[in-house]
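Quick illustration, no need to memorize.
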Amino acid sequence: MADQKKSDKQINIELGEEVAEGIYSNLAIITHSNTEFVVDFVRLMPGVPKAKVKARVVLTPQHAKRLMNALKENITKFESVHGPIKEIKGPALPMNLGGPAAQA
């Protein structure tokens, strides 16, 4: 009976071959409205003045907060094994790269 309850709560997630390859991003632009957060993942390349959004994820505010907490937890675990992540201060980027302005 306990095994049945456990299997009822299990989620089967499929990871397609193309998605499994991943997309490299070195910039995330986050905007929001009163109902959703939009995270655009961008790849900036040296010497290239134009960058494209490589992936966009749209989240509910509740899921955005769960994601933030999961990232915090995983960064803490990573740093406990590998040491502190060094933050590199670079030139300020224009924060409006043609996307919608954040709204509260």
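The CA atoms of residues 35 and 76 lie 29 Å apart.
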